[in-house]
C-alpha cells in the first residue's frame, strides 16, 4: 500500500513537471541528452563493471554492444533533435483553400520504460534517449535480473539528469506490477512475450499506447552452395553472433539454422573448428563468452539438453559448469521438431541445425511458425532473396550478416506478430514517444453556403 501511495506521489511530481512545460523546450532536451553523453563518457568503467557483474560481459563486448551503441544513439539524437522537433508542413488540397496545415510532434507526457536484463544498459538508454528527445517526463524500471546495472542506473542517472523529470525505480515483478497499475501516457516494454501480455492488459485499462519489444525464434537460412566463395566470413559472422553476443542471450541472436541436407556435414565440420578456435577447446578453457544470467535461466537452457532425444542430436559441446553458470557452445543436428528446444526461444548458446531437402523449402518452414523478430539469410541468389522478402514476415530481415540491423539508426527496430509491436531507434525512437498532432489553420473567407443545411435546396442566410 505504502509503495502504491509513494509511486502515486512520485508520478504526481512528474506530472507537475510536465505541466510546467520545461521538458518540451529544445534547450531542456538538448541539455539532458548532453548530460547523458557525459554520463556514458565519465562513468564508462562503472558501466563495464556492472555489465561484467551481471552477465560476465568482457569490456570489448560491453563497449561493442552496449556503451558504444548508446553513445552513438545520443550523438545521433543530438545532431537531429532540431529537425525532429520541427513541425512538418503539409500541402493542402484545393478543396480546403485557403488553409495551412502541419504535423506537430507532441510529447505523450508521462512515460514508463521497462527493460530486460540481457542488454541492461543499452536497452534502458536507447528508449530513454527517444523519450527525452520527444520531451516527456520519464520513469525507467530496469530489470531486477541485472542488479548491478539496475543500481548503477538508479545511483548515477540522478547525478547527471534532471531528477524532477527523469526517475529510475528499481524492483522486481511486484514493483513492475505496482507501476503498471498507474495511469501512463505511454509504456515502452522490452522483455518476453509472456510479460508483454501482462503489460498490454494493464495498459488497456487506461487505453495507454504501448510499444512491445519482445522476442522469439530467429532463423538463419544458410544457402551453402550460393555463398561458397564467402563461407569463411559467413561462418565467422554466424559464430560471433550466436556465441559472442551475450552467449546467445540476445533477442536477435540466431535461434536455429536451416541448411540443405547435402551440405550439413561440411557446415558442421567447419563450425566445430571455428568454435574451438574462437571460444576454447572445452568447458575448462572456455573464453570470450558471457555467462548465463542466473541459475534459473542456466537450468532452463540445460534442461533442453537433458531431453534424451535432444541429447542424442548433440554434435558439438553439450557440457556445462553450474558453478560458473557457463554452457559450452553447443550444436544440435535435427533435434525433434516437437521438442522444447525447437518450440521455445533458446536464449542461450545452443544452436540447432535443421536440414531441408531444398533450401527454398526454408520459407515454408519459417512460415509455419510465429513471426520472428529477425530473419537472416546467407545467400547470393537474387531470385531467392526476392522470394524471402515477399513471402516471409519478420521484424527485420538481413542478408549475409547477423545482428547488424540493431545499430542502424536509419532503420526501424521492432517486431511483428508475437515478436512485438511498435518500433524505435534513431528518428523512430523520437516517434515512439511522440503523438503526431494534425494542426490545421483556416480563415473565414471564402465561405460557401453549399456546405450548410438545410439540404433541401434552400440555403440558410445570415
Ligand atoms: P525480464 O525478466 O528482465 O523482464 C523484463 C521486465 O519485466 C523487467 O523490468 C521485469 O521487472 C518485468 N517483469 C518481470 N515479471 C513481471 C511480472 N510478472 N509482471 C510485470 N512485470 C514483470 O526479461 P525477460 O522477459 O526474461 O527478457 C528476455 C526476453 O526479452 C526474451 O524473450 C528476449 O527475446 C526479449 N528481448 C527483446 C528485445 C527486443 O528488443 N525486442 C531485447 C531484449 C530482450
From TrEMBL:
Record field: catalytic activity: an aldehyde + NAD(+) + H2O = a carboxylate + NADH + 2 H(+)
InterPro entries per UniProt: Ald_DH/histidinol_DH (IPR016161), Ald_DH_C (IPR016163), Ald_DH_N (IPR016162), Aldehyde_DH_dom (IPR015590), Aldehyde_DH_NAD(P) (IPR012394)
Cited Pfam families: Aldedh
Biological process according to GO: aldehyde metabolic process; response to abscisic acid
This protein's UniProt keywords: NAD, Oxidoreductase
Gene Ontology CC terms: cytoplasm
Catalytic center residues: 213, 251
Residue ranges constituting the Aldehyde dehydrogenase domain according to the UniProt record: 15-439
Gene Ontology molecular function terms on file: aldehyde dehydrogenase (NAD+) activity
Lineage top rank: taxon: Eukaryota
PANTHER family in UniProt: ALDEHYDE DEHYDROGENASE, ALDEHYDE DEHYDROGENASE FAMILY 3 MEMBER F1
Family (UniProt): Belongs to the aldehyde dehydrogenase family.
Entry protein name: Aldehyde dehydrogenase
Organism of derivation: Spinacia oleracea
